[in-house]
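Intended use. Records like the one below are meant for learning the mapping from a protein sequence to its folded structure. Do not use them to infer anything beyond what is encoded.
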Amino acid sequence: MTAEILCVGTELLLGDIVNTNAAYIARELARMGIDLYHQTVVGDNPERLKKALHDAFDRADLVITTGGMGPTFDDVTKETVAAYFGRKMVRNQEAMDRIATYYEKRGIELTPNTEKQADLPEDCTVFQNNQGTAPGLALEGKGKVVIMLPGPPREMIPMFDGAAVPYLLRYSGKTIVSSTIHFFGIGESLLESRMHEYMLAHDNPSVAPYAKDGEVQVRVTASAHTKEEADKMIEPVVAEICRDYGKYMYGVDVGTVQNALVQELRQKGLTVAVAEGGSGGNVVKRITEVPGSDTVFEMGVVTNTAKARAKLAGVGPKTIKKYGVYSEETAREMAEGIRRISGADIGIAVTGRTGLESDAEGKELGMTYIAVDSEAYRHVTKVDLAGNRSAQSEFVRYVASSSALWNGLKAAQKSGKENL
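Structure written out for the chain above:
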């Protein structure tokens, strides 16, 4: 089966929104063994959309669309697809009931243009939307298949994973199972070069690295007739990779480093506190967005001046005067101070530069120090992105916060109530 992705939305063409949907779907299609040869983006124009759809079906057996399924007048993707397959639009009552409930709970008036989201091509398979209002669908005819998904990623991704993938797997007769191993502190190219033999030796399950900001994921994917068979194929490969590269690994199928940290803290019965200067509160934000973090997170402070570091994070004025605000010594005292002030088991500290210019100390953007402090583990790490062309403020803050979370995880792994 060959596929094409057709993303609908003028905002995509104008660059107002980054097309993350296409990247996500492309990766998942490759994982399922479905060949993808083209991706198309078209604006909210009925005639251009119609031509794009016909062109896509001339090239592919399967077309996956995103966007153009909402309540506004220019959301015409469903109508265009229905016309291509010669189907009329019919009201889906379950979708209508869901939409009505959604609006009623929020105290919003239900208008006729909102109701049109429940109008779908006849004889389609409906994918109900658990994250929003516009349902998705699958439709077959003329030897072709179309999968239609909403545009917002927070709606598209769950619908694709939960409904579209099982629908498409019917064509392969197999089950696809993946396990993701998460690494920090090693680059994609270095990890790939070291894992070259793994990648050559394994076809099913396959082994593939993916780079993210400051970290790397390795996905191990197996295809089998049942999930149990696929799981058995994956387990020894994952175990081997974890054994050989455990120094850099922070978890398997944990999602994010903050998830791994909160999970470890909860298992050990530990608490954490954070002092940030230069990371914009990113460490606290990422910890507290994890469900269950309220049981392990004591407190967090965001400081910007030497005075604030001294008052809120317990840094001695002599330390700042001698070594500067952005220094290993200051980071260490911030971690010690926030742990002492909060009573937490682990203190995490960040102090660094995220502005666009060098400061009076001569420290450039990207020069950041990370410290962790506990009874069992104390460590300071220097994160040096100075001179890196990609070192924009947001990037620096994110990588610095990732390093802080990673170091916090190492402290938690080495700690435990029985050791304190």
